[in-house]
Amino acid sequence: MGYHFPESVASHQEALRHDPDHPMIYWGLALALGPVPNSRSAGLPDDPQGEAREAIEQAMEFIGNGTEVEQAFVRALYIRFDSDTYPDRDARIKRIWPQPGTCSRHTRTTPRRACY
User: Fold this and answer.
1) Of the candidates 73, 81, 70, which has an alpha carbon nearest to the alpha carbon of residue 35?
2) Taking 50 as the threshold, does the pLDDT of residue 116 lie above it?
3) How far is CA 96 from CA 40, 89, 114, in A?
4) Among 14, 31, 48, 97, which lies 20 to 30 A Cα-Cα from 37?
5) Residue 65 and residue 92 in one domain
6) 28: closest CA among 49, 12, 47?
7) Same domain, 68 and 53
């Protein structure tokens, strides 16, 4: 079983017809349109049309209509698309996660759990 992104997008767009002011519908749309590990490993762009960022910005616009938990979900996903605050996200990730070959160079100092 897998996640069917086009169907998710269609479902969220239909939900917007019924409740266009609810932030979680835009959140789900951004989640379905945005970057996923499979697309990144394939070298595909995160959000080529800017649709996911637009959806999460809409969610931020209506964030006051959600519960505290829903607001937290929206804010958490917004970080993924906030290139103004996090302009070089990939560079930060490269500093955090060990790069291929790290363990072979630093076998005595690198904890085994950090190796892959």
Assistant:
1) 81
2) no
3) 17, 11, 10
4) 14
5) no
6) 12
7) yes
CA distance 63 to 24: 8
In the chain the first and final C-alpha atoms are separated, in Å, by 27
Q: Measure the CA–CA gap between 18 and 31, rounded to whole angstroms.
A: 19
CA distance 16 to 22: 8
Is the same domain home to 17 and 61?
yes
Distant-in-sequence, close-in-space partners of 98: CB < 8 Å, separation ≥ 6: 110, 114, 115, 116
pTM over 0.85: no
